[in-house]
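Structure first, sequence second, as always.
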């Protein structure tokens, strides 16, 4: 029993370190970008239809346009990211990668011309897609329960998949969400 508690404690510490490190990077990049570079690093985001804009697939998740933007992404990133890594920490890395890649490429292809897309919300929507569809693809009690919990608590985010405001990258949200669904399918146990 003691060994099991130590293992759980160790796992939680690792999860906290990973999520905490990511959040620290988001905030540090925002502060450095804002105060040292006058937000000029935001041009490293996804620039749809321009070959140079593909670099944004790597950089965009770490760039945020305002204090409100980075603050609004922090809590959902921590909560949804933690739910993603509950079963296996490797899932967190894979879902993050798939959400960033598919979300980034989709945004680059379908994004509005002459726009710059930045922020971690594409990955956050990837986590949402993964968690909502994991129950469908796995068909286990735990996965379905987590899907229901996430649907009830974060289901309102679904509206972010629609083009409701011109300054919000619904493209990154939509394609990140699709990336999360793809990850859920690929990570589902083969039966």
């Amino acid at each position: 029993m003691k060994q099991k508690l130590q293992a759980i404690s160790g796992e939680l510490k690792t999860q906290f370190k990973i999520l905490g490190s990511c959040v620290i990077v988001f905030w540090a990049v925002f502060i450095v970008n804002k105060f040292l570079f006058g937000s000029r690093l935001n041009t490293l985001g996804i620039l749809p239809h321009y070959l140079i804009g593909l670099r944004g697939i790597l950089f965009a998740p770490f760039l945020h346009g305002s204090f409100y933007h980075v603050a609004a992404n922090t809590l959902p990133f921590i909560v949804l990211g933690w739910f993603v890594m509950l079963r296996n920490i490797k899932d967190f890395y894979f879902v993050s990668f798939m959400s960033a890649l598919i979300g980034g490429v989709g945004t680059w292809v379908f994004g509005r011309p002459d726009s710059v897309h930045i922020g971690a919300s594409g990955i956050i929507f990837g986590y949402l897609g993964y968690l909502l569809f994991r129950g469908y693809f796995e068909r286990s009690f735990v996965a379905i329960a987590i899907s229901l919990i996430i649907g009830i608590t974060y289901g309102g985010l679904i509206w972010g998949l629609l083009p409701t405001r011109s300054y919000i990258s619904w493209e990154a949200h939509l394609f990140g969400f699709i990336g999360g669904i793809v990850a859920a399918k690929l990570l589902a146990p083969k039966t």
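Margin note: The mean pLDDT is 94.
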